[in-house]
Write a structure and sequence with these properties.
By secondary structure, this protein is α/β, with parallel strands linked by helices. The chain contains 15 helices and 25 strands.
Length: 553
């Protein structure tokens, strides 16, 4: 493999890579603003310029390039020697930083980007200690450019990442560069708002605080946020995301780069669609029909009574009525949830009907010029749930939502366990009618709805950011995700609920749910070997201790 030398150290690179790409692959820092691996190379920020020497093709002798070279644009060559720490390169870095800060308002204390701003970082690492500019700064306006994005023009460094994104990735072209010189600025075309399905990605692309997310504006300082790797829990795309949270509350969702799934982007639907996690309609306590509401100060007693009520009802259904048990597993649940729920249902009734819940579909799949696809299917794990149920069904067919309704309508089932976990009202009139014909309905859901109003017993479940598990996306890729925050108040994840029900039936203490051990157990079941050999788990970056000194005032 060819090698080049960067600041005295040799590094291998792939043919065709630029110097900057080779350096980033080897975790060698070269400052850059305009370069992004998902966009075209324009080399207009100039801070990545370096002193480059290359062997002469005839003599093999190292010869310097006559001037500093943009490393983002210059192809790497075998034997090349690059200096980003030479006097020439350092002088350029300081000059670029000084020019970028000439008209910048330096309002870091009130800027949302503070703490994750490349302008801050590079000013500290590569800039001058003080400004020599004493003239009046140019003042640029703040602009509302779309439903999700604000533009603070006076902070912009004209890297043009956002403009290239709307032209090359979405193909919508709402953004442009208006003006020239020190007065140029990013703007939308007259009468055209930044309102495409991927618009929030320009906030992630902006290396400074010029493009800001309206939803996150002034909500939290980023150094207080904790990041948890997760998977899109709203659609079948399986986009890799980071859930950023603090004190048990989600504040924003950001994309995690994955070249095999979502590259560097996520949809606005995923970015902003998690708000139901903290909805006032969230269920937090179990409930039994015909009994007074449980005391929220005694949650253990409430859960004990609710689990006992379900166990008693299931025993009576099987013993007296001789009717079967039906289980409807929502495609919003994880593979692990489906596994534990199905095992419990089969322990009650070995011939239990297993069915996959309604799979919401909106329109058709939509692909953008940059290769990103928005999925019409709005359930993260329909394929995973079906895979698990088919593996446990003993060869019997697994029904869909319509088949579940038809089976209940025949009157052969005395109890139905129904799971929801959808972000909004989901119960159809036909399914509601079918459930009313069943004597015992156990609802495991996250939001109050017509289902929870009619259910015999209601058990509050957990949304995907409140538990660990795995989803299988539209292309069959199985991906694991981790728990970001604790379940709301006294709610439990569906796997733990199933384990509690199974333990009550067996007359023993319930084990605590663990996603890793559950996957190991599942992988021993025929048809579920993929849980061990095909699961894509998120990488764990090394923990970096902050150098910020916290002082009590």
């Amino acid at each position: 493999m060819p090698e080049l030398t960067i600041n005295g150290k040799k590094h291998a690179f792939k043919p065709g890579q630029s110097i900057l790409q080779a350096a980033l692959d080897q975790e060698v820092e070269i400052p850059h603003y305009c370069y992004h691996p998902g966009l075209s190379v324009v080399a207009n920020c100039r801070i990545c310029l370096a002193e480059v020497w290359q062997p002469n093709a005839k003599t093999g002798k190292l010869e310097p390039f006559p001037k500093l070279v943009p490393t983002c644009q210059q192809p790497a060559a075998d034997g090349m020697v690059v200096y980003t720490d030479s006097p020439k390169a350092v002088a350029n870095q300081k000059a670029v930083m000084e020019f970028l800060l000439i008209n910048h308002p330096v309002d870091c204390p009130v800027c949302d980007q503070a703490g994750e701003c490349h302008l801050q970082d590079y000013s500290y690492q590569y800039g001058r200690g003080e400004s020599r500019f004493t003239e009046a700064k140019n003042k640029q306006p703040k602009k509302d450019i779309g439903p999700h994005v604000l533009l603070y023009s006076d902070r912009c460094i004209m890297c043009t990442r956002c403009v290239r994104f709307t032209r090359e990735v979405t193909g919508t072209g709402e953004l442009m560069v208006d003006g020239r010189g020190s007065t140029e600025q990013i703007d939308v075309f007259p009468g055209v708002a930044l309102d495409n399905e991927l618009s929030g990605n320009v906030v992630d692309l902006c290396p400074v605080g010029a493009l800001l997310d309206k939803d996150f504006l002034f909500q939290q300082r980023v150094w207080f946020l904790k990041k948890t790797p997760s998977i899109d829990g709203l659609t079948s795309s399986g986009d890799n995301i980071s859930v950023e949270h603090n004190d048990g509350r989600v504040y924003r969702v950001k994309p995690r780069a994955n070249m095999d799934v979502n590259k560097w982007w996520i949809t606005d639907e995923v970015r902003y669609g998690w708000k139901f996690v903290h909805s006032e309609k969230r269920l937090s306590m179990p409930a039994i029909k015909g009994r007074d509401a449980f005391d929220p100060l005694r949650p253990m007693e409430a859960w004990r009574d609710a689990i006992a009520a379900v166990d008693t009802a299931m025993t009576q259904v099987r013993a007296s009525a001789k009717k079967g048990v039906a289980l409807l597993v929502s495609p919003m649940l994880s593979c692990e949830d489906a596994y534990h729920l199905a095992r419990y249902a089969l322990s009650v009734d070995p011939e239990a009907l297993l069915a996959v819940g309604p799979v919401p579909v909106q329109g058709e799949d939509k692909s953008f010029p940059g290769g990103f696809t928005i999925r019409a299917e709005k359930a993260p794990n329909a394929r995973g749930v079906r895979r698990v149920l088919e593996a446990l069904s003993g060869g019997r067919p697994v029904a869909n939502a319509q088949g579940f309704e038809q089976a209940l309508s025949r009157g052969s089932f005395g109890a139905a366990i129904v799971t929801g976990n959808y972000p909004s009202e989901w119960l159809t009139s036909s399914l509601e009618s079918a459930l009313r014909a069943v004597g015992t309905v156990v609802a495991i859901d996250t939001l109050s709805s017509r289902l929870t109003e009619m259910a015999s017993v209601v058990l509050p479940g957990a949304v995907w950011v409140e538990k660990a598990g795995s989803f299988e996306n539209a292309t069959g890729r199985l991906q694991g995700f981790e728990q970001a925050i604790d379940p709301l108040e006294h709610a439990k994840n569906e796997s733990q609920i199933a384990l509690d029900l199974a333990a009550a039936r067996a007359g023993r203490a319930a084990p605590r749910f663990c996603a890793v051990s559950t996957r190991a157990e599942m992988s021993k079941v025929t048809g579920l070997e993929c849980m061990a050999n095909a699961l894509h788990a998120p990488e764990h970056p090394e923990t970096v201790d902050s150098d910020m000194v916290m002082v009590e005032i």
